[in-house]
Amino acid sequence: MADEASNAKKQVKAPTAAKRHKQDLKKSLRNRAAKSKIKTARTVFTTLTTKEEKTTHCNLLYSHLDRAVKKGLFSKNKAARLKSRLAAQVAKA
After folding, report:
1. What pLDDT is stored for residue 86 in this prediction?
2. CA-to-CA separations, 19 to 16, 30, 63, 85, in angstroms, rounded
């Protein structure tokens, strides 16, 4: 009797853990892609020369960073720090 109850509990836990693992894999792929997109955009930003190009690309980077904060990839402070550095580079150009 007790064995049947414990077996029933084990059967419930295994599919849930498998589903969670599958969800985590999907989420980690999505997060990695988003972070990679931001890193690529930052490297492209450093190669730009004119102020107009940097300004337009900076706006694109701002939106990527804001989305990353919304998804929980970056903290608000990290995004603000990166935005500040981008703005300083635009002003310097």
Report:
1. 93
2. 5, 17, 32, 40
